[in-house]
Every structure is written in structure tokens, then in C-alpha cells.
Write a structure and sequence with these properties.
Number of helices of chain B: 18
Mean pLDDT of chain B: 88
Order of helices and strands of chain B: HHHHHHHHHHHHHHEEHHHH
Strand order of the largest sheet of chain B: 1-2
CATH superfamily of the largest domain in chain A: P-loop containing nucleotide triphosphate hydrolases
Strand content of chain A: 15-25%
CATH class of the largest domain in chain A: Alpha Beta
Strand content of chain B: under 5%
Number of strands of chain B: 2
Structural class of chain B: mainly alpha
Low-confidence stretches of chain B: 348-358
Radius of gyration of chain A: 19 Å
Bound molecules: adenosine-5'-triphosphate, magnesium ion
Oligomer: heterodimer
Mean pLDDT of chain A: 92
Distance between the termini of chain A: 35 Å
Order of helices and strands of chain A: EEEHEEHEHHHHEHEHEEHHH
Shape of chain A: globular
Largest interface: A-B, 37 and 27 residues
Low-confidence stretches of chain A: 253-259
Structural class of chain A: alpha/beta
């Protein structure tokens, strides 16, 4: 059974059809790329999976359970986490706090226990801290733990956003253009990083990315979206040589600007 | 760590000493101002929780205070006094004999206010930004209209008189301290972080698994609870309340306090509550006749309000973070400040020796 299964999903905004009749399947452990020109509907797909939008038509199943229409926080609870195309950190809070917040969804103590600092809450808080510090250490942000999130350089902000998503302990991680704005060296580092966390955290990853070198090296399969319609899917090599894809996306010169 | 505990203990003792002194030797006017300072600190802290820490633009504080003030007053006015006050329309049946000790009445007032917040929070908190402000503003006005018209409960526009003056420095400062400790403890917990995450970015907070409605309600209800208690303290300080007391102006004053002190700073709210309350009294001369010696300016009632409004505009325009921004005044900060370091330079040798031990 597929981990994520979108079938016949359509998303309309008024008269605009952002995604049309999309079928998408992710199997456990895969890294799948979602590519396509600007405005193709890629982020909209993420927003539907994470519950920000409810699909106009169609169903989304995660682990066999229907999740379309669920509240975003409940979907996260099911094991889906994401990053955003335009970084959305909790800017005024510290790096550590950003990660700690992502642990809050599993808290068992109620607010009274938290205010009174009762033993169960203390234990949970200590465990959260330990886990978060370990995670920050793993992603190389430990020395920045007390810095304001907005004070980090851009590349580290991206990294923190991934760390924050990981802190929710997802099975499926959605990355929306994680290499955007990075130079080839940084993008290559990120590629390695994504591969590593997939192994370490036992993740399935859906990745939106315009950097073709990133996509081609780490993705097991690709879906190509153009004007809301999926025009092709398959292994990177197939996609690269697909005439339709080359015409609609890969071959277009202006796309180089996005890289 | 140990130093901070000691400093806190010393500060507490000093406060108790000061209150005991003030209680015995200050004139009634000064004591009243001090009481008001503490009550406004409670109100500022509670509004800051909702607006400053959770980022909800709520303007319902006067409404919350009204609920708390009326409940507390009705539960503390002696039954025979109630009969006299309600001479137009007799007071409703169980209320006429109900009587509770002051602290219990305050608690009931706070809890009922929290319940009201729970009822209006469910629909209102679905609204965002300005819309929430309008809805909560409307709530405040509706409470006023209701209280004006439910004569057998609130005595309508006549208001409640003869409320026992049970609020004293111990109650007001004790409650203010309690409010500060509870809200600070909440803010520093995982729940507090969740509230601040909502303030920073709702979409991101929700995608990190934070149940928005639940946490917004939590903040709203706890804020309302303390606003209700603040209202109760105020009513039993003044001795009379009526619906006209709880207009938007009251909410505005508290908003001024939290903006001036810094949205998202508890110590800022406390400091600002004292500054604004004292300034409010001190600037009273503006509303009266001013004699400059060579000429007499006829004061206009409401001039103070204008001054405060201008002040708020200046702060919002040029000094948006207020006094404290979202930082807090802590012992560590005080001890590391330049002034203090200069003063204690001589003692440094011993301090380092001690620091090495822990
Ligand atoms: N909330 C919304 N309301 C109306 N239209 C929307 C909304 N969200 C997205 N759209 C539209 O849907 C289309 C797809 O947008 P989407 O953001 O999914 O594209 P994308 O593939 O992520 O593009 P990019 O590469 O630029 O990020 C666009 O035309 C966009 O304007
Ligand atoms: Mg996008």
C-alpha cells in the first residue's frame, strides 16, 4: 500500500483550476520530486496534503486513512511535516524555541500542569529539550541555539526549517524548494543532507525543486506538473528525455533564471 | 541561580515592608493610586497575554472587567445594603441573599468572566486581525447594554453603590504578583511557546501541529480570568460601579499600557502600568484650570485623554517596541547592566570566587 495516495484531486480557486485530476502515489522510503514551471500548482499540492486547502474534488489518503479536509495540525499529528517556499520560521523566537515548538503536539500535560510545573510536565519539558538539542546538534545548529531565528544566515534558516519539521517526527516530509536561492555548492551540500536525514529518520520525501541537478541526483521518481496537469511521471532519466517535458519545462530558457 | 533566588526574596521583603509602611502612613489618596497601579498591572498583564504574546487583536477587556466587577460586587455587598440600592427594581431572588468572602467572590468573578470568554471565544476567535478587534469591541458594548437593561441583577444604569471597600494594598499587590507569576510561568512553558508561535506565524504554527483554536481560546480565557479579577478588585476599591465605567476608554487605557510597556514583555506591562496610572493622576491638572501666574488657561475635561492618545500615536509611530519590546527585565540583566557593575566593581573579587563554586 502506498504511504500517500492522491487520487483524482482537483483544486479550484474561483475560476482558476490550480490542480486538475492529479493522481500521485508515494511509497515508503522514496524521494519523489515534483517539478514544473512557475504557477504550475506545486505548492498547491503541498497545501492540499497538509490541510491548508481542502481539495475541491478528490481524496488524499495517508497510511490508508483519508486526510483531505482534516485540520492541518491533525495531519501533522498523523506524520506529515513540511517546509515553506518562503521560509516561515518563528522569527522573533530563538533557534531552540523554534524546534521546541514542534515538540508541543505530543505533549500530554495540560496547561495547568505546565503552569504549576508539576512532575509530569517537568519530565516532558526536559525530554523535549534533550531531543531538540540533539536534533540541533545533528543539523549543525547547536551553537546557534540561543540566536533569534531571523538572525541566522539564509542557508541556515532553511536548515532550521527542516530541523523544525523533523522535530514533529514525520513519516512524510514535504520540502518546498529547499535549495532556492542557494549556489551550486550549497545546493550540493543540501542534497547530501537530505539523503542523510532520509536514512537517519526513516523518511519518505516529496520535494519541489527547480535546481535540476538536485532533483536528478536524489529523486527516485519525478512528477511533472504544468498548468495544474500532470504531464509526465517516471524516473529522472525518462523525464529528462521526455519530449513533452523538455518543451513545457526543462527546455525553456527562462527557467535557468530560477536556478 | 542561587543569587537570583536571594535577590527575589530580598525584593519581596522590600515590597512587603513598603506595603506595610504605605498601609499605615500614606494618605488615602496615595494608597488609592498605589492600588490602581497594581490593578492596572493585572489588567495590563492579562491583556498582554492575549494581544502581546498570542497576537490576538482583542479589545474586549472592559467587557471582561465589567463581568468580574459586577459579580464580585454582587457577591460582597451585604444583603440589607442590596435592598436599599435596588429601590427601583428589586434584586433577583438568589442574588439578594448571596454573600461570599471577598477572595472567594473575586475567584467566582474571575471564573465567570473566563466562562463568558469561553462562550464568545469559540465564534470570535475564528476571526482574524481587525475583524476580531471589531467583534470583541462589540462584545464590550453588548455587555454594557445588557448590564444597563438587566435591572433586577445589575440595578441598570443606576449602578451598584455601597460595595464594601475590601480592596486594600495587600489584595491588589498580592493578586498582581500572583498574576505575574502565573502568566510568566505559562509563557515560559511549552504552552507559552505555542502561543508565541501563533503570534509569529499562524500558518507555520498550525503546520507544526499546534491546534490553533484550542490555544487561542486558552490564552483568551486565562486573560479574561485575570481581567475579571482585576475588575473585581477595581469595583471593591472604588465602592461604586455602573455600566458607563466600562466603555472603550477603559480598554484603550490598558492597550496604552501594554503598547507603551512593550507587547510581549511582562515586566514592561508592570512598569508601564505604574507609569501610566501615576501620570494619569499627575496630569489631572490638565483637566482643570491652570494658573500660569500671568494668565489662566481654562482646562477642558478630556485633555488628559488627548495627551495619552497623542502619546500612543508617538509610540506606535516612532518607538513601536515600547519601553521593553519583547524583552524582560531579569536579575541577570540588572546585575550585568553598566550602572550596577560600576557600583559593585569592588566586590567583584568575592563574586568571582563564589561563581566558581556553582
Ligand atoms: N489561495 C489562492 N487563491 C487563489 N489562487 C491561488 C491560491 N493559491 C495558489 N493560487 C494560484 O494557483 C496557481 C498555482 O500556484 P502554486 O503556488 O501552487 O504554483 P507553484 O507551482 O508552486 O509555483 P512556483 O514555482 O512559482 O512556486 C497560481 O496561478 C496561483 O496564483
Ligand atoms: Mg510554489
Amino acid at each position: 500500500m502506498a504511504l500517500l495516495d492522491m487520487s483524482q484531486v482537483t483544486m479550484r480557486f474561483g475560476g482558476l483550476t490550480a490542480v486538475k485530476d492529479l493522481n500521485l502515489e508515494l511509497n515508503s522510503g522514496e524521494i519523489i520530486g515534483l517539478i514544473g514551471p512557475n504557477g504550475a500548482g506545486k505548492t498547491t499540492v503541498f497545501n492540499m496534503i497538509t490541510g491548508v486547502y481542502k481539495p475541491t474534488i478528490g481524496t488524499i489518503r495517508f497510511n490508508g486513512k483519508e486526510i483531505s479536509g482534516m485540520r492541518p495540525d491533525m495531519i501533522t499529528q498523523q506524520g506529515i511535516a513540511r517546509t515553506f517556499q518562503n521560509i516561515r520560521l518563528f522569527k522573533e523566537l530563538t533557534v531552540l524555541e523554534n524546534v521546541l515548538i514542534a515538540n508541543h503536539l505530543n505533549i500530554a500535560s495540560n496547561f495547568m500542569e505546565a503552569i504549576l510545573k508539576l512532575p509530569r510536565y517537568r519530565r516532558e519539558e526536559a525530554a523535549m529539550r534533550e531531543k531538540s538539542l540533539k536534533l540541533l546538534d545533528r543539523v549543525g545548529l547547536l551553537e546557534h541555539q540561543n540566536d533569534k531565528a531571523s538572525s541566522l544566515p539564509y542557508g541556515l534558516q532553511r536548515r532550521l526549517e527542516i530541523a523544525r519539521a523533523l522535530a514533529t517526527e514525520p513519516k512524510l516530509l514535504l520540502l518546498d524548494e529547499p535549495a532556492a536561492g542557494m549556489n551550486p555548492k550549497e545546493a550540493a551540500d543540501l542534497t547530501v543532507f537530505i539523503k542523510e536525514i532520509r536514512e537517519e529518520f526513516d523518511l519518505t520525501i516529496l520535494l519541489i525543486e527547480h535546481h535540476m541537478d538536485v532533483v536528478m541526483t536524489i529523486c527516485d521518481r519525478l512528477y511533472v506538473l504544468v498548468y495544474g496537469t500532470m504531464i509526465a511521471s517516471g524516473e529522472p532519466a525518462e523525464i529528462q528525455s521526455n519530449q513533452q517535458v523538455i518543451e513545457a519545462y526543462l527546455g525553456v530558457d527562462e527557467d535557468a533564471e530560477n536556478q | 541561580m542561587r543569587r537570583n533566588t536571594i535577590l527575589t526574596a530580598i525584593a519581596l521583603l522590600l515590597l512587603i515592608g513598603f506595603l506595610a509602611f504605605a498601609d499605615n502612613f500614606f494618605d488615602l489618596y496615595l494608597v488609592r493610586i498605589l492600588n490602581l497601579c497594581a490593578i492596572y498591572a493585572i489588567l495590563g498583564l492579562s491583556m498582554n497575554l492575549i494581544n502581546g504574546f498570542t497576537g490576538l487583536f482583542s479589545l474586549g477587556h472592559a467587557g471582561f472587567m465589567a463581568v468580574g466587577a459586577y459579580v464580585t460586587a454582587l457577591l460582597t455587598i451585604p444583603p440589607d445594603v442590596k435592598k436599599q440600592i435596588f429601590y427601583m427594581t428589586p434584586i433577583m431572588s438568589p442574588l439578594d441573599v448571596m454573600n461570599l468572602p471577598f477572595p472567594l467572590a473575586l475567584l467566582v468573578g474571575g471564573l465567570l468572566t473566563a466562562f463568558v470568554a469561553y462562550l464568545i471565544g469559540a465564534p470570535a476567535l475564528k476571526l482574524k486581525g481587525d475583524y476580531l478587534a471589531i467583534a470583541t469591541l462589540g462584545f464590550g458594548e453588548i455587555i454594557r447594554v445588557i448590564f444597563t437593561n438587566t435591572q433586577s441583577i445589575t440595578n441598570g444604569a443606576l449602578g451598584l453603590k455601597g460595595i464594601p471597600n475590601t480592596t486594600n494594598l495587600w489584595w491588589s499587590f498580592g493578586t498582581a504578583l500572583f498574576t505575574l507569576v502565573v502568566i510568566a510561568s505559562l509563557i515560559r512553558s511549552s504552552y507559552g511557546r505555542a502561543l508565541m508561535a501563533i503570534r509569529e506565524d499562524e500558518v507555520a504554527a498550525e503546520s507544526m501541529g499546534i491546534h490553533l483554536a484550542k490555544h487561542k481560546n486558552l490564552s483568551f480565557i486565562i486573560g479574561a480570568f485575570f481581567a475579571g479579577i482585576g475588575g473585581g478588585l477595581l469595583g471593591n476599591l472604588l465602592g461604586t460601579i455602573d455600566p458607563k465605567m466600562f466603555t472603550f476608554t477603559l480598554t484603550f487605557n490598558i492597550l496604552l499600557i501594554i503598547v507603551l510597556g512593550g507587547m510581549g514583555s511582562l515586566s514592561g506591562s508592570v512598569i508601564s502600568a505604574f507609569v501610566v496610572t501615576i501620570a494619569n493622576e499627575w496630569l489631572r491638572f490638565l483637566d482643570e484650570q491652570i494658573n500660569l501666574g500671568f494668565m489662566v488657561i481654562q482646562g477642558k475635561v478630556g485633555t488628559r485623554m488627548v495627551v495619552f492618545s497623542v502619546l500612543l500615536m508617538v509610540v506606535v509611530l516612532f518607538y513601536r517596541n515600547g519601553l521593553m519590546g519583547n524583552r524582560e527585565l531579569t536579575w541577570d540583566q540588572l546585575c550585568n547592566s553598566k550602572i550596577w557593575r560600576g557600583l559593585s566593581a569592588r566586590k567583584r573579587g568575592t563574586a568571582i570566587a563564589e561563581g566558581g563554586e556553582k
